[in-house]
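hey m, so remember when u said the tokens were messed up on ur end? i reran from scratch. heres the input so u can diff it against urs
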Amino acid sequence: MTSTGPTPPAAARVVDAVKVYGSGDARVRALDGVTAGFPAGRFTAIMGPSGSGKSTLMHVAAGLDSLTSGSAFVAGTDLTTLDDRRLTLLRRQRVGFVFQSFNLLPTLTVAENITLPLDLAGQRGDPEWIDTLIDAVGLRDRLHHRPAELSGGQQQRVAVARAFAARPEVVFADEPTGNLDSRSGEEVLGLLGRAVRTMGRTVVMVTHDPVAAAHADEVVLLADGRLVDTMADPTAERVLDRIKAFDTRTRDSAPHAEQAVPS
């Protein structure tokens, strides 16, 4: 999808983000001065070779991990200024998450899992919005089932609905199709895309899969903990070509490279 107007404001962004793990000989620089914004109302994919820092970038942008230096913002709020309590509240109320492993509570029904973020926040939520999400994920006839009674694809669709239930500023999806077969993966990616394009939501997805990245409006590419490229209107072929180029470059420089960093 090509934007014809001004760039929308960032739902989330990082500025000069540095993340270092360990010390001494075990020191790993996972992010090395990354500045990136994730526009509101858009679908952004974060990609890069193994060890590029893509998962680390998502974790610090979402407030799941702290920065060594630099800043991270969600809708203008600087996460580095928040104490643990306020950071927890922000994640609960303004950020949604979809993980590879679904992370549904097995004792709760589909309906209860979907509304869990609202229940934890002591909020009733908007019944009309919840109904819209239930219809969007196509699970109205499964509302009283528990996760063990659902397929993997159905469980991930519940997780997607849960992520959007509180109308967060941004939903972060970490390899959301990693545990799914290709058909179920396409269904989940299509659902995320529709949430952006028909519901005006914001999605930031980490993926290693060029086919998954092709569902996004823009791809942010990392290598060696640094932002190296952005790609609008991605196709699987273009993304794969860029990833291969960075993989080749990394192999060629391996004897001189520092210790690998988390992906």
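this time it looks ok to me. The domain at 39-59+92-256 is CATH 3.40.50.300 (Rossmann fold). if urs says something different then somethings off w ur setup not the seq
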